[in-house]
């Protein structure tokens, strides 16, 4: 009986095996018939539906080093998930670790391959990476003409980085063994002697080793020859097979919260020629198409304004013929109120576009857009729809950014009093980070690393980092003064006490918040001029291990002035031996003097009647700086540097603001002598200043400016017609939200002065772009404004994957050759998600400008 049963089992198993074999054969044939292999397209990257593979279309940045936007990268089912495919010298490179320079890039369409040559100048080490399409994936071959240098043996390797948020709640399989991508870093590390560490940028270090001369090295989660990442998620599945060296999987978040998951193979020692081969196969879903993105204002619209939604479509997708608008009725049900034709716009960069014009809807209420199977979230149509959209920026964002203050909100303390240790004079001939450099002299009365007193007052953190950037302050103060003078913004929702250095959010104190913020910014500019002698490039921490600080700003230093007679980390209660005090970078420039003078002159008008003593001081210092900067320019050598070109016309701005504040005819004449030539040289850059002057000039000035305004409109209209949103979209590594805001604000001034030239729709259009009618997604770029807004953004809180209400993100960065991106699941892309103070101030002006237009009959 047992023998018979065994025979039955064998027969059954053979039958089952046959069925399994038939299934896999059919499955294989189906995959072969439906899958499409990678091919090199005319834009020089590999492509198939659902997958793009870039090979150094974007290079590493020499200033900010590794921004996770370079090397071999994937656009995987519409989302950039992989970056940094390159030879790197660390298991988990941090932003400031050394990066390779690309010497050459060759595209071979005949052989369907791309070859790049990389070099580490510091080690005279060259490597060649050849990426070749193969089957449904591609091979990566690393070729060396010379062996890996001795000092890089066991350190140089090929890395490919995977963004963590695309792989959370997923698994990986290594040589048949399964594991789970950790939600929070919990893998192993070890301590190694500092002598084994590859130096970071300019001798800086991201690690505070507390004098131990050691560093942290990450250890792999797993290693093996065959990897499958996210096998359960077809949109993110990637196979990696190594012919020779093991592939190791690391978690870069052990060293920095902005770290990625990294697949890495060490290059072998004493070998030349082809030293490493990977086969990589990202899964591509057959016939995949990206879901349409319907861009519209998340805040909503006014009844009378033009209302156009923009539909972003996969390049293999075609626009539907119609779309519908549904309105909520009194019965609580939505009913169709408009069925309208969808207008095909055409191709822009990598996508096709169409437009849905529903301007015919003028009835107030709650609506959504239906496009095919897609239904947007709801939005409102109301008369006062824009009246409160700037409240979070003034009520929350700016208070949180206030330096030298304890900032409280209800039960929460955003940060204690930071940087009470004043600052130190930066050392000479010092190459710092984030663009800071000190030249061969201090141009002050202070010696290198000498304390500069009186500086622990006023100012805002520039962005997510906690430095004082003087030019940003100048921009904010100028914009706030414009908002005050144009709209008399007298909202009071913040308690600000400069004597006790305390701020309480949502607590009125009887004073207009806008004037209090102008005062706060001015206090730091005045302190710079009075204590240092002139405005400075900025004030920033000296160490990288401080600079990447997240959380409470008051803990970035020990808040005690540096005392060289004490040992590091030693304190006597009033000073300490720790070199953590911020440095002031004090090289003088006439450009910054003029810009600061203009800002102080403007502030003197706003502060009159609120803080008369500070108002008078502002005007006195503005005149002093203008006179001194004029003398500096007379003695300056010809300079065609980018900073000099960028600062051109700064004297005109100072003179204009001095004329507006004093009505002194010498300043009026000086302004008129300069403005027309500057408009001829750079129309867009100088238009705002020209418009600001109109109310204080004669009719002849206004008539002459009219011709420039017409030319400005013709130029910007032509440029903006190149994209379906009809706004100036920036193609760079820093998003263009501010550019759009400033364009719309300039249009506001033009409309108020020359309503026959510029209508108000161009002002609304810029604001609607910021509030959701833009590429990639339809999220509002202003945190906590609109029905759906950014969920994560770049501030001191970015490690918490949250936002600070009212912050305006930069928006969409451009990655060559055709990709606009704004990630909402990863806060660490500074060019996409880092909110800055001047962008917030410009947004406050635009929001109030739109409210002003809403009152027009």
TrEMBL record:
Q: Which GO terms describe its molecular function?
A: cellulase activity
- Give any Pfam family that matches: Glyco_hydro_9
**Gene3D superfamilies per the record?**
1.50.10.10, Immunoglobulins
Annotated Glycoside hydrolase family domain residues: 456-791
Q: Which UniProt keywords apply?
A: Carbohydrate metabolism, Polysaccharide degradation
The GO annotation for biological process reads: polysaccharide catabolic process
* Residue ranges, annotated region (Disordered): 555-578
State the source organism's domain of life: Bacteria
Q: Where is the Cellulase Ig-like domain?
A: 291-374
Family indicated by similarity = Belongs to the glycosyl hydrolase 9 (cellulase E) family.
List the protein's name. Answer: N-terminal ig-like domain of cellulase
């Amino acid at each position: 009986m047992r023998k018979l049963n065994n025979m039955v089992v064998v027969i059954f198993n053979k039958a089952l095996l046959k069925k399994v074999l038939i299934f896999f054969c059919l499955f294989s044939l189906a995959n072969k018939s439906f899958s499409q292999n990678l091919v090199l397209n005319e834009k020089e990257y590999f492509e198939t539906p659902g997958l793009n593979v870039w090979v150094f279309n974007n290079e590493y940045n020499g200033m900010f080093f590794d921004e996770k936007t370079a090397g071999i990268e994937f656009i995987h089912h519409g989302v950039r998930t992989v970056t940094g495919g390159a030879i790197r010298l660390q298991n988990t490179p941090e932003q400031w670790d050394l990066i390779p320079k690309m010497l050459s890039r060759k595209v071979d369409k005949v052989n369907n391959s791309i070859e790049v040559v990389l070099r580490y100048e510091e080690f005279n080490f060259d490597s060649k990476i050849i990426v070749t399409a193969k089957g449904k994936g591609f091979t990566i071959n690393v070729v060396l003409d010379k062996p890996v240098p001795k000092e890089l043996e066991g350190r140089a390797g090929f890395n490919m980085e995977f963004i963590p948020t695309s792989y959370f709640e997923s698994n990986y399989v290594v040589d048949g063994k399964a594991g789970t991508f950790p939600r929070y870093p919990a893998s192993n590390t070890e301590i190694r002697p500092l002598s084994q560490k590859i130096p970071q940028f300019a001798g800086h270090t991201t690690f505070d080793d507390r004098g131990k001369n050691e560093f942290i090295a990450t250890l792999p989660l797993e290693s093996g020859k065959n990897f499958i990442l996210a096998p359960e998620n077809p949109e993110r599945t990637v196979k990696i097979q190594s012919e020779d060296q093991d592939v190791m999987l690391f978690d870069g978040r052990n060293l920095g919260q902005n770290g990625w998951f990294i697949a890495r193979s060490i290059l072998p020692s004493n070998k030349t020629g082809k030293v490493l081969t990977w086969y990589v196969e990202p899964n591509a879903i057959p016939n995949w198409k990206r879901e349409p993105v319907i861009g519209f204002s998340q805040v909503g619209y006014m009844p009378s304004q033009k209302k156009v939604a923009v539909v972003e479509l996969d390049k293999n997708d075609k626009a539907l013929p119609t779309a519908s608008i549904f309105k909520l009725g009194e019965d609580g049900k939505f009913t169709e109120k408009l069925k309208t034709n969808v207008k095909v716009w055409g191709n822009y960069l990598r996508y096709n576009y169409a437009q849905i014009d529903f301007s015919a809807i003028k009835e107030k209420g709650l609506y959504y857009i239906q496009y095919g199977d897609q239904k947007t979230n709801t939005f409102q149509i109301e008369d006062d729809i824009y009246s409160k959209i700037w409240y979070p920026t003034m009520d929350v964002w700016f208070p949180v950014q206030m330096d030298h203050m304890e900032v409280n909100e209800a039960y929460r303390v955003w940060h204690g009093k930071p940087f009470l240790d004043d600052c130190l004079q930066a050392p000479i001939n010092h190459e710092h980070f984030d663009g800071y450099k000190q030249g061969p002299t201090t141009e002050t009365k202070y010696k290198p690393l000498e304390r500069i007193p009186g500086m622990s007052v006023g100012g805002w953190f520039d962005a997510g980092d906690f430095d004082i950037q003087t030019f940003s302050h100048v921009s904010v103060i100028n914009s706030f003064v414009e908002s005050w003078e144009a709209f008399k913004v007298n909202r009071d929702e913040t308690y600000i006490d400069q004597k006790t250095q305390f701020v309480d959010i949502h607590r009125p104190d009887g004073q207009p918040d806008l004037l209090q913020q102008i005062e706060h910014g001015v206090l730091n500019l005045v302190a710079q001029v009075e204590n240092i002698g002139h405005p400075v490039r900025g004030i920033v921490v000296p160490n990288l291990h401080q600079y990447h600080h997240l959380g409470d700003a008051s803990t970035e230093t020990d808040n005690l002035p540096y005392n060289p007679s004490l040992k590091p980390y030693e304190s006597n209660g009033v000073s300490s031996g720790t070199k953590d005090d911020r440095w002031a970078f004090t090289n003088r420039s006439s450009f910054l003097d003029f810009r600061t003078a203009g800002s102080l002159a403007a502030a003197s008008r706003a502060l009159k009647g609120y803080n008369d003593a500070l108002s008078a001081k502002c005007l006195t210092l503005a005149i002093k700086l203008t006179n001194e900067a004029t003398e500096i320019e007379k003695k300056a050598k010809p300079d065609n540097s980018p900073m000099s070109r960028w600062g051109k016309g700064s004297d005109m701005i100072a003179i204009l603001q001095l004329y507006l504040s004093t009505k002194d005819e010498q300043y009026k004449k000086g302004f008129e002598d300069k403005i027309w030539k500057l408009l001829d040289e750079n129309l867009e850059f100088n238009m705002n200043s020209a418009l600001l002057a109109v109310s204080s000039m004669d009719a002849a000035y206004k008539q002459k400016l009219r011709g420039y305004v017409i030319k400005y409109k013709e130029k910007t209209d032509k440029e903006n017609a190149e994209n379906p949103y009809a706004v100036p979209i920036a193609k760079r590594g820093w998003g263009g939200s501010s550019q759009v805001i400033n364009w719309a604000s300039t249009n506001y001034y033009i409309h108020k002065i020359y309503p026959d030239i510029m209508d108000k729709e161009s002002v609304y259009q810029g604001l609607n772009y910021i509030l959701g009618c833009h590429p990639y997604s339809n999220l509002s770029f202003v945190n906590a404004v609109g029905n759906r807004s950014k969920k994560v953004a770049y501030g001191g809180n970015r490690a918490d994957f949250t936002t600070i209400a009212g912050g305006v993100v930069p928006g969409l960065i451009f990655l060559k050759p055709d990709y606009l991106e704004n990630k909402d699941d990863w806060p660490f892309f500074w060019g996409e998600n880092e909110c800055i103070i001047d962008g917030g101030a410009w947004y406050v002006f635009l929001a109030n400008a739109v409210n002003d237009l809403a009152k027009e009959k």
